[in-house]
Design a protein that fits this description.
Elements: E1 14-15, H1 29-42, E2 46-48, H2 57-66, E3 74-79, E4 81-84, E5 87-90, H3 94-108, E6 113-118, H4 127-139, E7 143-149, H5 153-162, E8 167-171, H6 183-190, E9 193-197, H7 229-237, H8 239-249, H9 253-262, E10 268-270, H10 277-285, H11 293-302, H12 315-318
Helix pairs in contact: 1-2, 1-10, 2-3, 3-4, 4-5, 5-6
Length: 326
């Protein structure tokens, strides 16, 4: 981990997307800026955003909230997926990547981004071409390191031969185990940090969403099979033993989900997102929790790809990613 220590310390980062994108109505700008500033004050030092989130609004929030502390935190953003004329568009062409980076730098009010991910593999563009463009941005000092998001081990290896890859970001939690098929092993072999997004299973593992009908109409989870009524009720049944274990250990369900990562590998950094400052603190405090091997094994058996009901994405969402499937 010495190659990129900022990713490891502190061991939990903050996913900023929730403030502007995908989970219902955006948080009011002043409240969002205040929440990000409070996150910094409580100790978060790894903030993750993207060109896509809120059509650039999320990067603006992060830039506005944290510009006075720029030397004191690790900043990650993403390119290659953006809102174009109101629609999401995947585009990994070098000229697009360069332009999006310039726009990100302006919105984030910074001269460099520590880690810049290709948000999705563009099936029309060779990964070597996209990564080559990111490599040029590293040489120019505009970005510190290259990341990839939701890619397979095969794509990671191809990309790594073109330019060194510092991090892969993909969904990973007790109920989404896809990285365990091949990507985690590839990351360890190549000394690539694995950054886990949605480590709390999009709220499922927190116990804060016991009825999927409570979701706002615009919430992305409404389009995800696991949150559909026919699947969600079966998934909720998995939480009974899980909640009991959290109670026995003396932590919250969210903290249990985050502590699980430490028992898996030493190169995983979860980046839970939340709109609540209280939950930000709760999640950060999970870094102090250490589970023993029997507790990790118990969790692995309790919730996994064999007993979770429903696929993680619908057919349209599935087409956008390159990750291995069970």
């Amino acid at each position: 981990m010495s190659k990129h220590p900022h990713l490891a310390n502190p061991s939990i980062g903050l996913g900023c997307m929730n403030l502007s994108h995908a989970y219902g109505s955006p948080v009011q700008q002043d409240d969002a800026i205040k929440a990000l500033q409070e996150a910094f004050e409580m100790g978060y030092r790894h903030f993750d955003t993207a060109t896509l989130y809120g059509g650039g609004a999320n990067e603006q929030l992060v830039g506005q909230a944290l510009k006075d502390h720029r030397q004191s935190f690790f900043l990650a953003s993403k390119c290659g997926m953006a809102m174009v004329d109101g629609k999401k568009q995947i585009n990994g062409r070098p000229d697009t990547i360069r332009q999006q980076c310039e726009n990100s730098l302006k919105r984030l009010q910074t001269e460099y981004i520590d880690l810049y991910y290709l948000h999705r593999l563009d099936p029309e563009v060779a990964i070597e071409e996209s990564v080559g463009a990111l490599g040029d941005l590293v040489k120019e000092g505009k970005i510190g390191a290259i990341g990839l998001s939701e890619v397979s081990a095969t794509t990671l290896r191809k990309a790594h031969q073109e330019c060194p890859i510092t991090a892969i970001q993909s969904e990973y939690s007790l109920w989404t185990r896809n990285p365990e098929i091949a990507v985690l092993k590839a990351c360890q072999e190549l000394d690539v940090t694995f950054v886990a997004f949605s480590p709390l299973a999009r709220g499922f593992l927190t116990g804060g969403l016991m009825n999927a009908n409570d979701l706002e109409t615009k919430d992305i989870r409404n389009n995800m099979p696991r949150f559909q009524t026919e699947h969600y009720e079966s998934n909720l049944a998995l939480l009974n033993d899980y909640f009991s274990l959290a109670k026995d250990i003396g932590c919250t369900p969210a903290q249990l989900a985050l502590a699980w990562f430490k028992g898996k590998h030493n190169n995983i950094v979860p980046i839970p997102g939340t709109r609540s400052v209280h939950h930000m603190q709760e999640n950060l405090d999970a870094a102090q929790l250490n589970l023993d091997t029997s507790q990790i094994r118990l969790l692995d058996e309790m919730i996994n790809q064999n007993n979770v009901h429903g696929p993680r994405y619908n057919a349209a969402q599935q087409k956008e990613i390159d990750t291995e499937e069970f």
